[in-house]
Specification:
The protein contains 9 helices and no strands. It is mainly alpha-helical. Helix 6 runs antiparallel to helix 7, helix 6 packs across helix 9 and helix 7 crosses helix 9. The radius of gyration is 16 Å and the shape is globular.
Length: 134
């Protein structure tokens, strides 16, 4: 019964390469693009295209969450993972490009501290500070 209720509101993911590239261009600054997408084909042919199509042309295209909300979820996931500093710094810059304020980004991490632990929260806050200082 629960599936029937949810199914009425959920839509299948689509994969749209052009929409993914357009969204990636709006979200990422040049530094983030260089550190995360550019040059990947030299070491992992096809991986960058898969990432752009599946994430930015697929998951990010789903209705139901605003880009800002998706960015908050991404910041939380990366802070929780730890050891992904380049990605977290890039997503902090993306959050700012999407209209979040430095205070909001910081508060996302502070809010996470009881859930992810002080060491991971401190590491994430160092990434936030580094991204804001650039």
């Amino acid at each position: 019964m629960e599936d029937a209720v949810l199914g009425a509101d959920l839509q299948e993911s689509t994969l749209d390469r052009a929409a993914g590239r357009e969204l990636l261009g709006r979200m990422m600054d040049e530094e983030t693009y260089r550190s995360s997408v550019a040059g990947l084909d030299q070491h992992a042919p096809g991986f960058a295209d898969w990432m752009v199509v599946s994430l930015f042309g697929g998951t990010y295209q789903r209705p139901g969450l605003a880009l800002r909300d998706r960015q908050i979820a991404t910041l939380a996931a990366l802070a929780t993972l730890g050891s992904v500093e380049p990605q977290l710094e890039g997503h902090v810059r993306t959050a700012l490009r999407l209209g979040m304020t430095p205070v909001e980004v910081t508060e996302v991490v502070v809010h996470l501290a009881p859930y992810i632990g002080t060491p991971r929260a401190l590491a994430a806050l160092r990434c936030v500070r580094a991204a804001l200082e650039r």
